[in-house]
Design goal:
The protein is of the alpha/beta class. The chain folds into 2 domains: 94 residues, Urease, subunit C, domain 1, CATH 2.30.40.10; 324 residues, TIM Barrel, CATH 3.20.20.140. 32% of the residues lie in helices and 24% in strands. The strands form 4 sheets. An 8-stranded parallel β-sheet has the order 8-11-12-13-14-15-16-17. A 7-stranded mixed β-sheet has the order 3-2-7-18-19-20-21. Strands 5-4-1-6 form a 4-stranded mixed β-sheet, with helices on one face. Strand 15, helix 9 and strand 16 form a beta-alpha-beta unit. Helix 4 runs parallel beside helix 5 and helix 5 crosses helix 8. The longest helix has 18 residues. The structure holds N-(aminocarbonyl)-beta-alanine and zinc ion (ZN) (2 copies).
Length: 470
């Protein structure tokens, strides 16, 4: 099947241009000058022509940080791969990289197989895996080498969550040395979990059990200190480092200092850290704030975190926007922490809204159109070894394409989202712009407000090494 997308403005990380895009089967075969002889001939021969006049034609989103069905705090993230990837498709994301989970005492290989089984045959869009290494030992270090050879080329470690995913500095250093040898990318949850647990226990002893205390005890200093420590360990371990879900200005400062000194350090932030805050969201009355409990936490509005993060997105000290999609319902899930914020499962669902929320940065003059595409598609594809198959519009790339209508205004609500959540963290947020059509490997999966895809269309993506290795 050949399809020509004509009359659109094609946005890539390098610019915006009027161009026609020719798709044959699952791939883009040409990007053509509109009205040129070859474009006219392509239209005459195409089995389908999509008129993209007035809309942006962008590469499908690549969300490099999701947690479908993550077991956390005695429950599981509420989106499975079927619902979660369908919701992602609605929001213009055509590839996710999810985290397979291994904990101390578990075999990495078995854990990874569990993740393959959860995803296989269920995904609406393409997917790959990072591997969480929660138990660093001789065997799991060896397993990292094998995984890199098999296309799982990035590993998340935790300086937070003692007793669950936490690794001490020695274990982190060993994993970094292993990654230096095998070309893997170390992804770090950078918060000082040992110190956080002390403050959390003291808060509960004082009777401060409400959700907002989650944010109060997870101090920005603890994120900054851990980010600094991770950077120093990576320098000694001689491996590249990618800081996940960065939320505090102070942590960003550590990344900026390291990058200015030439370190191969990267950082990601998420929409929740650009739009939500501790007081107005986590501090909502009653138990409502539990819907905003995530780690790293939302930061205080009485500082400049949002402004600094937007600046970091412009200067490339923050190179990726992912969602850290980890949804839980209020009922029966977040409610596990009704009496004690420490028992609230950590996470916010947002896989459906990343492209739209970041596009508001274009509308508000924070970032340019090409930077929007770079942050949401191109750099994550490069970072995680998916480029140029994913993350761009060029001949030879997969035909993962979103038609984005900049003139459509709508409002986010639990009543119109597709994630498995009984609330929306962005309820009432007005969005300028809208995902109009989504094409995944040549197949239209969202069209005219209808989902036309199917579970099982999404294929596993064996990833190469990060393009940012030096
Ligand atoms: O609150 C969060 N971020 N939950 C998911 C687990 C993680 O640390 O990424
Ligand atoms: Zn994390
Ligand atoms: Zn996460």
């Amino acid at each position: 099947m050949t399809t020509l997308i004509k009359n659109g403005t094609v946005i890539t990380s390098t610019g915006a241009d009027g161009a026609d895009v020719l798709i044959d089967g699952e791939q883009i075969v040409a990007v053509l000058q509109p009205g040129s002889d070859v474009a006219v001939a392509a239209e005459a021969g195409a089995e389908r022509v999509i008129d993209a006049a007035g809309v942006y034609v962008i590469p499908g989103g690549v969300d490099g940080h999701t947690h479908m069905e993550l077991p956390f705090g005695g429950t599981n993230a509420s989106d499975d791969f079927e619902n979660g990837t369908r919701a992602a498709a609605w929001g213009g994301t055509t590839t996710i990289v999810d985290f397979a989970v291994q904990k101390e005492g578990e075999a990495v290989r078995d854990c990874l197989e569990t993740w393959f089984a959860k995803a296989e045959g269920n995904c609406a869009i393409d997917y790959g895996f990072h591997q969480i290494i929660g138990g660093v030992d001789d065997q799991s270090l060896k397993d990292m080498d094998a995984l890199v050879d098999e296309g799982i080329t990035s590993f998340k470690l935790f300086m937070a969550y003692p007793g669950v995913f936490y690794s001490d500095d020695g274990k982190i250093l060993r994993a970094m040395q292993q990654a230096a040898g095998n070309g893997g990318l170390i992804m770090m949850h950078a918060e000082n979990g040992i110190a956080i647990d002390v403050l959390a226990e003291q808060a509960v002893e004082r009777g401060e059990t409400a959700p907002v205390n989650h944010g109060r005890v997870r101090r920005a200093e603890f994120e900054s200190e851990a980010t600094h420590r991770a950077i120093q360990l990576a320098k000694v371990g001689a491996c590249p480092l990618y800081i996940v879900h960065l939320s505090a200005s102070e942590a960003l400062e550590q990344v900026m200092i390291a990058r200015d000194r030439g370190a191969n350090v990267f950082a990601e932030t998420c929409p929740q850290y650009l739009y939500l805050n501790l007081e107005d969201h986590m501090g909502r009355p009653g138990f409502e704030g539990a819907g905003y409990v995530c780690s790293t936490p939302l930061r205080t509005k009485h500082a400049h975190h949002h402004e600094d993060l937007w600046q970091g997105l412009r200067t490339n000290d923050l190179s990726v926007v992912a969602t850290d999609h980890c949804p839980f319902c209020m009922k029966d899930q977040k409610e596990l922490g009704l009496d004690d914020f420490r028992a609230i499962p950590n996470g916010i669902g947002g896989v459906e809204h990343r492209m739209d929320l970041l596009y508001q940065g274009v509308v508000n003059g924070e970032i340019s159109l090409p930077r929007w595409v770079e942050l949401c598609s191109t750099t994550p594809a490069r970072m995680f070894g998916l480029y140029p198959r994913k993350g761009t519009i060029q001949a030879g790339a997969d035909a993962d394409i979103v038609l984005y209508d900049p003139n459509h205004t709508w409002t986010i609500s639990v009543n119109n989202h597709h994630m498995t959540m009984d609330y929306s963290a962005y309820e009432g947020t007005e969005i300028n712009g809208h995902v109009h059509t989504v094409i995944s490997r040549g197949r239209t999966i969202i069209e005219n407000g209808t989902y036309t895809g199917s579970a099982g269309h999404g294929q596993y993506q064996r990833r190469g090494l990060s393009q940012y290795l030096i």
